[in-house]
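Re: beginner question about structure tokens

> Can someone show what the tokenized structure looks like for a real chain? I only ever see the sequence side.

Sure, here's an example I had lying around. Input first:
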Amino acid sequence: MALPPKSYFHLDEIARRWDASIPDLACYTLDGLLQISIMTVGLRVETGVFETGEHGLFRLPEGETVLYGPQPVVSSDLWPVFRTGAGRITRLKPSAPDRYVDLAEGVEPTLVTLPDLLVTRSERDRFEAAHGLGTREPVDASASSEVSKPPAEPGFIHRNGYSEVVLNGELFRLGPLQASIVRQLHEAALTGNPWRHGKELLGSSNAQTLRMVDLFKAKPNWRTLIVSDGRGYYRLNLPDRPAARLSHRAYRRWRLASAG
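And the corresponding structure tokens:
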């Protein structure tokens, strides 16, 4: 008698199926190519939307709900988990760029370890279809519609001349020079060549510094919004970049960090 199909898989199962390593899966996750979930059992969260008011962008709560089963997380929040084996999650991935899903007030951050990371069946099948990996077992009818869908894109919205930017439910308030950098990178992303040299970006913004890190030093989470290749080029942390180049760089970065 055949066992019923599983609805989710642990990372070691996915690694064996794809003949990949956990660092490979970390790379795909941080590059926005693979959606990772965590199991929730009665997790209380607050959901809401971002609205524009007289004083700019603000959060408008809609209410609380209780979650059960695998829930997607924001890829960038998993870096500590891949880096050290454990991390804490305070939010989940929203269903749209102008929404957010945060742990409700009074709920402690969720401790997540590598064994807690999951890939749902529909996400596994979508990834395999998107990257030409032959499925090694029949895809059930309920998942077939998911295979045909394009990868979900991380949410990105901007307001007020890029002075307010939301990426995956995280709000960034930017100064004029910082907003100019993000605007240039967003325009570059729309051309299909998202990479721009830092000195070119800073020069076009009339910045009085030659280092991007100096311009964004007051924003400790700016690397969640902007990614560097380590050789002077930058892009927005969006999925519209050359996957092969990013995979190589992200993998190398992960390996170097792990060795340290």
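Each token stands for a local structural state, so reading them left to right follows the chain. Residues 156-238 form one domain.
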